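Fig. S4 source data, part A: sequence.
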Amino acid sequence: MIPGIVPPFLLDRLASTDDPRLARAAAAARKTLAMPRPQRATRRRLRLSIDGDALVAEAVPAPDRVVSDARNTENLPGRRVRSEDEPPSVDSAVDEAYDGLGATYDFFWDAFARDGIDAAGGSLLATVHFGDDYDNAFWNGERMVFGDGDGEVFVGFTRSLSVIAHELGHGVTEAAGGLEYQGQSGALNESLSDVFGALAEQHHRGERADEASWLIGSGIFAEAVQGEALRSMKAPGTAYDDDVLGKDPQPGHMRDYVETDDDNGGVHINSGIPNRAFFLVATQLGGFAWERAGLIWYRTLTAGTLSPTADFAAFARATLAAAATEYGEESEEVAAVRAAWAGVGVEEDAAA
């Protein structure tokens, strides 16, 4: 049911009144309560699969992508240039964003049966060519926005599926209740987007946990940069070591936690710790990382029990609870989650 501004308990009370002065209102309330609520139309597509010797056709939700072009201004949303079911454009950034949104949508649907950012089939909105030599990509609460880079250090943010999925992941976290973008809760916010970014890329490539690079932002650096990507979930602190950019500052263990007032309390730095924890769970369990490790993290985020100010220890406890609910207290999944948080120095509170 789509909630209305008038709560149903008020309509129920009004519908049951026998006060003759409110006869019309009572009838209207009964009519309102009986009226079916309009649901958002959900796009569908036909998916073919093979079950034994049979070809199976099923209708499944489809993305509703809309890509706009800011034309190197800072005006959003920009001019709409490609929408769902339209042919490729002559602009590689437009098509990379379009394809990346589709691959990320497919990941969330196949892995978690989530129909888009809001889980209700809402449009996936993106703007490319934002700003003049803009060296970043971001989620603004409504859409994903991508700069082109400066051409010398960064060469375009739509080139990396993990970046596109990372930004879409911020929308999913926001829709699930959000994590305050400060300190450890902010680092968890960033880490969850990295998790979704890595998993979407692995899902698209059909990679198992032990086959994946676990890099976030691979392909967005120019050739002159001494580095592979923005971050490494496998080995935080090793993604780049460049004369201009410096060395990747991410820690992978609580003993190296960075206390800082910059970057909202180090949200992009200390996210290396929960990133490493997820990598350890995924590789310990093996197989496709989205099937068990990813499901545990997703259940943790969407259960409705996570505080917006959760720190690493609280999140660790929540992942243990999610693993136990999904797989049982004595399962290998619970053991893997507990060992991973211990492996990054969050073990005492995680096991409490």
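Fig. S4 source data, part B ends here. The two ends are 38 Å apart (CA to CA).
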